[in-house]
Specification:
CATH superfamily of the largest domain: Type I PLP-dependent aspartate aminotransferase-like (Major domain)
Order of helices and strands: HEEEHHHEHEHEHEEEHEEEHHHEEHEEH
Strand order of the largest sheet: 4-12-11-10-7-5-6
Number of domains: 2
Strand content: 15-25%
Radius of gyration: 22 Å
Helix content: 25-40%
CATH architecture of the largest domain: 3-Layer(aba) Sandwich
Shape: globular
Structural class: alpha/beta
Amino acid sequence: MLTPEDLAFDREHLWHPYTSALNPLPSYPVARAAGCELFLQDGRPLIDGMASWWSVIHGYNHPRLNQAVFDQVAQMSHVMFGGITHEPAVRLGQALVRMTPEPLTTVFLADSGSVSVEVALKQALQYWQGRGVKGRYRFAAFRYGYHGDTFGAMSVTDPENGMHGLFAGFLPSNVFLDAPPLGYDMPVELSLITRWREQLAAHRHELAAVIVEPVVQGAGGMRIYNPAYLAHLRSLCDELDLLLIFDEIATGFGRTGRLFAMQHAQVIPDILTVGKALTGGYMTLAATLCTRAVAETVCRSEAGVFMHGPTFMANPLACQVATASLELLSEGRWPEQIQAMEAMMRNLLLPLAEIDSVADTRVLGGIGVVEMRQPMRVAEVQKKLIGRGVWIRPFGKLFYIMPPYVIQPEQLRHLIDSMRAVCTEAAV
């Protein structure tokens, strides 16, 4: 039980994400969680609309995931992965290779999503070294993209519309392509493809790879676009001899209605990053998968090995619970769960666009987005939402939900009703 003194310590000494040390946002003490609910220390339940930033897809306190952790912790919590292997890592690698497209057969198990992006970028750089090509040290990415908070990941995140503009003078200078327009069903603008080709061709001799979030751009704007653009991008990369990296950290493992967002377009990258939902939200773990051709070429570089090795790479606890999470997905209930969630959000969330304070609404799979006309006052909005028994964390103009897949219809309805109440009040 946190005392008032403990909470004061938190406020004065613990730095929460994207929060000012001068005027920190309120932090609500959570005592436990189960299913789709967080329980505050005072006993109030909150329906979680965030799945703890996309990760808790099976719900909190899942008995099978709990058991996986308990079983593994009795054996070993961690061993280094250098010169050692273990069953949890092998089983997870096998599961990832089975569920991803056939060419993606080499797996690097990293600590977090941002680190998996760093791994992907380093693989691309060493790939060109392995081919004996010099000068391929830059990357191309979409505007409005977001790939993480570490420095390599920040360098391929939109420097103008993203959240890392403060570091622009320090970050490497990369090439940014105009993002596809909003709309899953919007016709492809061939003029945009032409501009992409011109830009990529102009920089092809200095580009190592193109990195994008397939179909859904997450923290850069919750933008949903036509998957057909990915096929055009794949063709351009093939034509211009560029590697293609897909960042599926947010979209992987069913969130968009397909196991991976790239399956909406049946396009396969050379390198793939996954994370967030990989462990069902139990602990931090990510993976970078690449083709055998990429892996072998990387190891023909001067170093002769891939130059990356995190201390907690392939942590046995994380690998064990990740394998259990993927087993739950393989049992096949998630498609009907996502379909039901999408249908309800289309019926109830999309009409929020009629409210004067709302600029746009969009839904894909288990993602529901309300884009407001004005930035939201996060502290005020969260206080109102907690008063209604829900947990949603907006940012900027974006008011969105991506609940656990196991959410019940009445819980999802209450989330959307609460969003409607906030939007209606903002319109007054």
